[in-house]
Amino acid sequence: ENYAKELETDVLIVGAGFGGIYLMHKLRQLGLNCKIMEAGTNIGGIWHWNCYPGARVDSQIPVYEYSLPEVWKDWTWSCRYPGTDELRAYFEHVDKKLDIKKDCAFNTRVVGAHFDKPSGRWITKTEDGRTAKSKYLLLALGFAAKRHFPDWPGMESFEGELHHSSFWPNEGVDTKGKRVAVIGTGSTGVQIAQETSKDAASVLQFVRTPNLCLPMQQQAITVEEQERRKQGEYQKFFEYRLNTFAGFGYDYVEKNTLEDSPEEREKFYEKRFEAGGFEFWLANYKDLLFDNKANREAYNFWAKKTRARITDPAKREILAPLEPPHAFGTKRPSLEQNYYEMLDKPENKVIDVSNNPIEKIVPKGIVTSDGKLHECDVIALATGFDSVTGGMKNMGLKDVDGVELSEKWKAGTFSYLGMTLNGYPNCFFLYGAQGPTAFSNGPTCVEVQGDWIVDAIKKMRDEGITYCEATHEAEKQWREKVTELSDKTLFGQTKSWYMGDNIPGKFREQLSFPGGFPLYKQLTRNALDRGFEGFVTA
Ligand code: NA7
Question: Going by CA atoms, what residue is nearest to atom 30 of ligand 1?
Answer without folding.
Answer: 187
